[in-house]
Amino acid sequence: MTGITEGRIMHDKIENICTDSIIQHGKYNDRIYLMKLGQSDIGEVLQAIKNLVNEHSYSKIFVKVPIYISPQFQADGFFVEAIIPDFYSGTTSCCFMAKFLNSDRLMNIETTRLQEFSELLKVSHKNISASRKEKYVIKILDSSHVDKITELYKETFITYPFPIFNADYINMLMKNNQAEFFGAFDKDKLIVVSSAEIDKSGLNAEMTDFATHKDYRGQKLSIQLLRKMEKAVKNYGIKTVYSIARLNSIAINKTFINQQYKYAGTLIKNTNISGSIESMNVWYKYL
Predict the structure, then answer these.
(1) How far, CA to CA in Å, does 237 sit from each of 48, 139, 203, 206, 285?
(2) Over the stretch 78-105, which tens digit does the pLDDT of each residue have?
(3) What SS3 class is residue 287?
(4) What is the pTM (predicted TM-score) of this model?
(5) Which of 1, 14, 84, 269 has its CA 20 to 30 Å from the CA of residue 162?
């Protein structure tokens, strides 16, 4: 798999490393992200990542690995940023770990947003009813909706860590059954979109890529979409759903809190989204 670029909007590469591990890396996020660790690569993937760091001088390495692998990374200077218990197949916990290679990456953390988020966590979980008008139809999207999907993403985000502005990329995810996209419509107009990246072997799914048209915000449509997504992935036997949400977006964090997701940790200065590298909160829920 390779990264896709479009015009002036650049994205980091997504590619295989070693035998069957998958990474994202590049100067856009200025990091290496080990997205999936292949079992046959456990002994060599860390050195392969180091080789890329030496070649490109990235400021952060970010890995998502089973907990039993974490001591190998801790011994090399990584620390745990977030943990999701029973993540893989409902039995093995997942560690999100980081190693910072430049002190500047740790500076200017969004302290104001961290304080706001801390106060938000003190609020009791509430299962909010997300009523919607009948004219708002929520459904699973297909290839006929790709242009509308990319247009809504372009209207919502200045930059994004993955090439969701690119129709070829969205089509590839759909064709390869790597993700299902969901949308809410006002008649023929797509007003909210999201995706579920499904790991059938690990029985988990990432609930991600939420975008709401500016004229329809504040109507709790993301909650409706999230509920639809949970029902859909549960049909695949998915046991754990999770999301990596912007610390700077209190609204999306509230969406997950209100839907009974649990806080797993914060990924510091992790993702280039809407024009700058931001910290991200990890949420999870068992279905």
Answers:
(1) 34, 20, 7, 14, 14
(2) 999 999 999 999 999 999 999 999 888 8
(3) coil
(4) 0.89
(5) 84
